[in-house]
Amino acid sequence: MIPAVVYAIPFFVLLVLVEALSYRFLPDDEERGYELRDTATSLSMGAGSQVVGLPWKLFAVVAYAAAFALSPWHLSAASPLTWVLLFFADDLAYYAFHRAHHRVRVLWAGHVVHHSSIRFNLSTALRQSWTPMTTLPFWLPLALLGIPPWMILLQQSVSLVYQFFLHTERVDKLWRPVEWFFNTPSHHRVHHGSNNVYLDRNYGGILIVWDRLCGTFEAEGERVVYGLTKNIDTYNPVRVAFHEYAAAWRDVRGARRWRDKAGHLFGPPGWQPKAEV
Known about the structure:
With 277 residues, the protein is an all-alpha fold. The chain has 11 helices and no strands.
């Protein structure tokens, strides 16, 4: 099964070009726009993620099918209620996945790729991880709920397509009710900020209500500084993809106590052991 998002890739690339041209002819001194090497890295990361992701999806389909077979009931795709359940269940699964990948270092090591650019534009949406294997546990419960696997994969693609359009500085805040319920470019700019006030905020996929309910919401206020708290200063796709895994491994090797080794893997990014008294 080819993920539906694959068919959208040519349109993504076209829209990246359109947005880049908009900066050429309608520049904005407060927006960083595009830089050729940065964009090339983002596109390379996106291409690599698809190469890795396609065979991984085959494994995911088998896992979802097995979980679906174990479910005591099978929901009908013909029922509108199944699609409503899928929409909210998928978005909640994405929130849990996204939050975990910011708070557990071994998961962050893959997700950090997406935050590694100091620019924020549509090409940033394509800067994706080459290690998608950590996604499966967050969506398996949907199959156990009796939702058909093909529906889960389709909704995942819908969510990813929606999120592509969040990666832009060209769209200001939207109508207030939209900003309250849905994830928007304004909310997602906050998520990509390295400002202290913006760290670990706005994890939502399509909806922003999970962040509001769980206390992780932050409205856009001060000017967003994009990138990491400690930027990696490289355009090499391989280094971008694996630099945090290498850093975590160095910390694990350098730790003397097993609990410190575990902390470097399963603690939040930046975790350090307490000094021995």
